[in-house]
Amino acid sequence: MQLSLGYRHSITKKGAKKMSKNNQNKKDSSFTILKEVYGYFLSSAWKTYKMYFFVRFGKLLVSVFQPFVAIIYIPKIVEELMGSGNAQQLIRYAAAIVIIEFVLAILNGTFVNIVERYAQKFENYYKMVLSRRIVALDFALTEDKKALDQLELAKNGMSWYSGGLNGLMEELFTLISSAITLFGVTYIIVTKAPVIIIITAFLFIASFFIQAKLNMIEQEQYAKLSKVNRIFGYLGWGLVDFRFGKDIRLYQAKDMMIEKWSHFTDEMNEQWEEMANKQLPLQLLNMVVMLFRDFGTYFYIGFLAIMGRITIATTTQMITAAGTFSNTLLGMVSSYQNMVKKANYANEFVKFLDYPMAMQRGKRNVHPGPHVFEFRDLSFSYPGSDVKVLSHVNLTLQEGEHLSVVGLNGAGKTTMVKLLCRLYDPTDGEILMDGINIKEYDYEQYMSVFAPVFQDFKLFAFRVTENLLRTDDITDEQRKVAEQTLKQVGIYDKLQTFPEGMDTVLFKYFDKGGIEPSGGEQQKLAIARALIKDADVVILDEPTAALDPMAEYEIYRQFEEMVKGKTAIYISHRLSSCQFCDRIAVFSEENVKEYGTHEELVSKENGIYAEMFAAQAQYYS
Ligand code: ADP
User: Which of 379, 382, 588 has most ligand 1 atoms within 8 Å of CB, for mutation?
Assistant: First the structure.
């Protein structure tokens, strides 16, 4: 199956501008939203599931024919009864009604069944489209409240709020079939009792506005619920996720979680209540309008019949036709309003696909390393915060250099490598690779230069080999490299104790046979994954924090071998690790306060590094 994101995913500069406008401009007209949403969904669904539209068309034909069976045949029966009363003819009409209704019902049932099967496929398909968008999002946006709210709206908008693609199409096709039916019924009525059209149309306009107001209230309410829904998601996940189990129990967090749960349940109930209160008077008013419509229509038909202006057969036909006319008209209004409503929800999905990317993504090719990196007068605050984490940093990382980065907690060491990897862009200043601003390089290619192991790295709940190589189609050559690297980081033997060895699945999310590696084992696997990536720059952020002293010693011993020929950044609080790096950068007070070799820094009077080294060394002496 081809996963097409349609035009949404080729984000050009011009496109991005338009998209960002689309995102800011919350009050787009209904027509614009309908055009955008139906434009996107019709084209993406047509490309992937053409057959669906043929089935929908079949269902449409059935819906168009169905109301006319009674309108055409009932007057004939009445006429026959009032006239010659030919039994055979009567049976023929009755049989025609039964047979046609039966065939239409069978066809309709079959089409409904097929359409429902497609509904499931569409749900999965658009979930995949959404996932692809999420993983392609600027990293900074994954922490952005507005983006997360938009994601929540997108998920809900595309699922039960709108009924997904099938929900959108249901309304569109109902509207089309109703329009055709309406055309036919209007023709029949106009020739015999045209005032019916005026009465129904007049009251219908009143009902239209009432319904529009009802929908608006509902939609405003859903928008308010998005934050509460996100919190529910977090609480729901936290309460059932076994990884939270220890902390919930040992820190007696159960009551707090349940308290929060009930607090937000109350908040949600209140919001629903508020909506229902606002809607009640309008719903009642709508019912009164309907009563007037029925009263007016039947009064008029009765009047025509009593005055002898229409026959009994025509009277029955007009009663059926008037009912069909007003139901179809109301059906059309409700389909149109549902279309607008569902399109508004689904538009949240489209908006998320269009979520503006803040990061400039250049086109320049990245040439094979090694590379020189330079931080030039770089300052940085995290998005949405005014706190300077780094301020006017200047630092150069030479080709193949091994740089040790030290400093107290919160000094900005990790932030510095996140900026280097372009997970964020600097607030001021720039980072250059081989003399060129890193923003000018192709983003994906630039990312391929780095193999980091962050402190909060995550392994996937797949096979070890898939974690290492991101594919389940592994060549013998790759297998050999994986084996060697796992031996190097000291986890190969442990994996061999499991029946599937290197193909063992991590964690138990999907696989009962999955293993739960310890923190240290996970760290070893993460280091192996970084080494196998064979990138130009290896970044290890506290890589041995979870390792036992023997394992740490092994990593230190083999560090040279592991990063031979590569540039490496090694962040650690264990200052002994600095001795196998070429240079040390000491981060403090938003900047690099000291820079040099171990020998240079350790002998510096009142130096930060010298002090830290002395403090740590006293425990070992
Ligand atoms: P270090 O690696 O030196 O311990 P970090 O670079 O992780 O320090 O963090 C530097 C500062 O930036 C800290 O004060 C931390 O609270 C803040 N910080 C880190 N990550 C984020 C984030 N995603 N959003 C906002 N502030 C952050």
Answer: 382
Compute CA distances 462 → 16, 514, 533, 539, 568, whole Å. 35, 9, 17, 24, 28
Beta bridge partners of residue 463, listed in sequence order: 505
Nearest atom (ligand 1) to Cα of 587: 3
Domain boundaries, the chain: 13-353, 373-457+537-620, 460-516
Q: Tell me which residue of 99, 118, 135 sits closest to 54, measured CA to CA.
A: 118
Q: What's the mean pLDDT in 199-225?
A: 83
Question: What is the CA(255)–ligand 1 centre distance, in A?
Answer: 30
What's the whole-number average pLDDT of the chain? Answer: 86
Evaluate if residue 237 carries a pLDDT over 90.
no
Enter the CATH code of domain 13-353: 1.20.1560.10
Confidence of residue 240 (pLDDT cuts 50, 70, 90): low
Q: For atom 6 of ligand 1, which residue has the closest CA?
A: 412
pLDDT band at 87 (very low <50, low <70, confident <90, very high): confident
3-class secondary structure per residue, 512-536: CCCECCCHHHHHHHHHHHHHHCCCC
Give the confidence band of 45 by pLDDT, cuts at 50, 70, 90.
Answer: very high
CATH of domain 373-457+537-620: 3.40.50.300
Side-chain half-sphere CA neighbours of 25 within 13 A: 12
Instruction: Report the separation in Å between the CA atom of 409 and the middle of ligand 1, taken as the mean of its atom positions.
Output: 9
pLDDT of residue 393: 96
The string of pLDDT tens digits covering residues 10-28 is 333 333 344 444 444 446 6
13-353 and 373-457+537-620: identical CATH topology: no
Query: CB within 6 Å of ligand 1 — which residues?
Result: 143, 382, 385, 389, 407, 409-415
Nearest atom of ligand 1 to the alpha carbon of 412: 6
What distance lies between CA 575 and its chain's CA centroid?
A: 43
